[in-house]
Amino acid sequence: SERILFNEDEEIANDAPAEEKEMMRKVRIRNTNAVKKLKKLYGNKCQITGEQYTFKKRNGQYYSEGHHLIELGKNGSDSARNIVILSPLIHRMLHYANVEGLDLKKIMDNKLTFKINGQEYTITWHPEHAKIVTQDPGWIIY
């Protein structure tokens, strides 16, 4: 027999305008300059996969995202030392997948190999960026 997912009388099928609420929320003011400079340094390409898993925006530039290796909510800094530029897919994977071996003390030749869901990936740092990142070799992140 055919299963009906939605009945017309259900709230989910309701075409009424969404309810509005006024809310007050505390937000963290971010320093966007570090991400902007790093995106420029990497040409908006992912430090792990390059152009793979990204796309060009209408303006012709690649879409990329800045990822804080140590989350801001866990006292991570909002500086170039704590940020990598990633494709949206890799960024989500770092937040939601099983990540192992992301130990900045093991950066060698501006590269660090680690695992996401058991598969190896390598972050590559531009030499200028690597100088900043390796200033504090005591980090173990995942």
Number of domains: 1
Mean pLDDT: 88
Strand order of the largest sheet: 3-4-5
Largest sheet: 3 strands, antiparallel
Structural write-up:
The structure is a single chain. This protein has helices at 32-41, 88-96, 127-133, and strands at residues 65-68, 83-86, 99-100, 111-116, 119-124. A hairpin with a 2-residue loop joins strand 4 and strand 5. It has 142 residues and is α+β, with helices and mostly antiparallel strands. The mean pLDDT is 88. It has one domain. It contains three helices and five strands, in the order αββαβββα. 18% of the residues lie in helices and 15% in strands. The protein has a three-stranded antiparallel beta sheet, with no helix packed on it.
List keywords for this structure.
single chain; 142 residues; alpha+beta; three-stranded antiparallel β-sheet
